[in-house]
Design brief:
Strand order of the largest sheet of chain A: 6-5-4-3-2-1-14
Radius of gyration of chain B: 18 Å
Structural class of chain B: mainly alpha
Helix content of chain A: 10-25%
Bound molecules: zinc ion
Structural class of chain A: alpha/beta
Oligomer: heterodimer
Strand content of chain B: under 5%
Number of strands of chain B: 0
Order of helices and strands of chain A: EEEHEHEHEEEEEHEHHEHEE
Order of helices and strands of chain B: HHHHHHHHHHHHHHHHH
Number of strands of chain A: 14
């Protein structure tokens, strides 16, 4: 199995001279099994460049798993060019929103309205199937098995574990580790703490021993202090997850939009200094970075 | 009641609004971006309709959780505060239950009965040495045990009005007159809904038997709490009859109803707390 980053930015695309090294496209990860089956995690703007590489191999079958429907994770869908060509097959996987009861087809059809996009859903030529995934229920895609787990974010968000060819990967999508809503002096503090621990345990199990753990690490600790509840992780929380789950490699992604290449270089250097144990297994995700295992 | 009516009832409840005070507070709280999470959770935990909506979602087949979730707090940990908040807002957007309806059934008095039964039920569960989880679940059982009545008042007010009137005039239990006028009593209606919503077996059985013979300690706490709340006239859910403890329940607590009330000490603070929450 191998995977490649096509978009590593959070919230909004950030092209420009300051983001040349790590890239300015929003979230998209390509996974290839040894049998060359194509699995894509999220359809941020990075999916457009990925799509260019697929044109020569058409007809193709692509399995796109959406972590959640915030713009930066779906915005590239209408630009995933294979949807416009006959004989391509696209399977779009995502959750059912508990508030609206809408399934993942809504993400695409909402974007393909004439005021937002010149082509209507009915005019897409590829065969597109929408599949609703449920937490804990493993989906088989060719030789790969994909298991979703709900991870805390302001909207329903799935982390996906992909097991294939004897290797494994886990991607969090956007994730903030939830905190206790009660104060230590409140009656409910202890029981809520119990619920949090139980959920945390479930998350660590889902990530256990993966070859690659890819986590939302949008913020530094200082930034996080004023962004509690926004739904994103920190460099520190990413490293904590990796060590608890015994991940073999950790990739930090969903870079904050104002973060320049120089910022990320600096952060990387500091992290390596503070966490020498991670010296050979800690990476900052950047567009074009490809990993085989 | 016919089984086609059962299905219709379940469908109707989907559109049922929440209680006025909680709708008002949800709207207030959600317009403030800095609102504390625990305030939102508290509003939901004290409203039967909002609670049911959250538990229904989290226990739906969609989430495929191996274990049923009876507490709003656990639901928050599993699907996130913002999702829970938005679910509450979507219920709030449906409007609010009218305090007085054609059935002559006061939503405020009902809520006081539900909330005090919930609080007493939890206290009894602690006293009976149930697990921490069962203790918090017993609050939910108390909150939801009479849910069937809200449904009757909302969707079959004329028949429910007759049942309420006869119960009051003849001093017979409301669940008996409901059977006569509606063809199903609120315990059965509540059970039916609880099953449809995928609530836990523990809750379903407690609701089913809250006027009969509870099948376990959990159900016995609910039964006893309901009688205590009525005996102390905490709120009013339309049933004038206080039932004596069956032998099993008297054995469970080692004493009959009146003695248990005596032994529990002053419970009026529970009514005060409920009033704070309910009064507009
Ligand atoms: Zn997001
Ligand atoms: Zn009752």
């Amino acid at each position: 199995m191998k995977f490649k980053f096509w978009g590593v930015r959070g919230s909004i695309p950030t092209p420009g001279p300051q983001t040349v090294k790590y890239g300015g496209n929003t979230t998209c990860i390509e996974i290839r099994t040894n049998r060359n089956e194509l699995i894509i995690l999220d359809a941020g703007t990075g999916i457009h460049a990925l799509a260019q590489t697929l044109l020569r191999d058409m007809p193709i079958t692509a399995h796109i798993f959406i972590t959640h429907t915030h713009w930066d994770h779906i915005q590239g869908l209408p630009f995933f060019l294979p949807i416009f060509f006959k004989n391509n097959r696209i399977n779009l996987y995502g959750g059912q929103d508990p508030v609206t009861d809408e399934n993942i087809n809504r993400a695409l059809s909402a974007q393909l309205q004439y005021s937002y996009f010149p082509i209507h859903e009915a005019q897409l030529k590829a065969r597109i199937d929408y599949l609703t995934v449920r937490p804990g229920e493993t989906v088989s895609v060719g030789s790969a098995r994909i298991t979703p787990i709900i991870l805390n974010h302001p909207v329903l968000n799935f982390g996906y574990r992909v097991d294939c060819d004897g290797a494994s990967l886990f991607f969090t999508g956007d994730f903030e580790s939830p905190i206790n809503i009660y104060q230590p002096e409140d009656d409910n503090y202890a029981s809520y703490r119990g619920f949090l621990l139980e959920k945390h345990q479930e998350i660590i199990e889902a990530m256990q021993d993966v070859d690659a753990l890819i986590v939302d690490s949008s913020y530094t600790d200082e930034e996080y202090a004023t962004r509690l509840g926004w739904g994103h992780g920190t460099y520190r929380s990413g490293i904590k997850l990796a060590s608890e789950a015994n991940a073999k490699r950790l990739f930090l992604t969903h870079h904050e939009p104002t973060r320049t290449d120089a910022d990320l270089d600096l952060i990387y250097r500091d992290l390596l200094e503070q966490h020498p144990r991670f010296a050979d297994k800690l990476f900052i995700a950047r567009e074009g970075l490809e990993v085989c295992f | 009641m016919l089984s086609s009516e059962h299905a219709e009832l379940v469908a109707l409840v989907e559109k049922m609004p929440a209680f006025p005070k909680s709708v008002q507070r949800v709207v207030q709280l959600t317009s403030n971006i800095d609102v504390s999470a625990k305030e939102i959770v508290q509003v939901i935990e004290c409203d039967p309709v909002l609670t049911v909506k959250i538990l229904k979602v989290i226990n739906s087949a969609f989430y495929g959780l191996s274990q049923k979730i009876n507490s709003v707090q656990r639901a928050v940990v599993h699907i996130g505060l913002n999702t829970v908040k938005n679910l509450a807002m979507s219920v709030a957007a449906m409007g609010m239950l009218k305090n007085s309806n054609q059935a002559n059934f006061s939503a405020t008095a009902f809520l006081l009965h539900a909330l005090t039964t919930a609080a007493i039920s939890r206290k009894l569960a602690e006293r009976a040495g149930l697990s921490q989880q069962e203790c918090s679940d017993s609050f939910v059982a108390g909150l939801l045990h009479d849910f069937g009545k809200v449904v009757f008042a909302e969707f079959m007010p004329e028949r429910f009005r007759l049942a309420l009137a006869k119960s009051r005039e003849d001093n017979v239990s409301l669940h008996l007159t409901e059977l006569e006028f509606i063809g199903i009593n609120h315990a059965e209606a509540g059970t039916l809904l609880a099953e449809k919503w995928g609530l836990s077996e523990l809750l379903i059985e407690a609701i089913r038997h809250h006027h009969g013979r509870p099948v376990n300690a959990f159900g016995e706490c609910l039964f006893a709490a309901n009688q205590i709340s009525k005996h102390l006239h905490f709120g009013d859910a339309g049933n004038p009859v206080v039932e004596a403890f069956p032998e099993a329940i008297a054995d469970r607590f080692g004493m009959p109803l009146e003695a248990l009330i005596e032994d529990l000490g002053d419970l009026r603070f529970m009514l005060k707390e409920a009033e704070l929450f309910v009064k507009l």
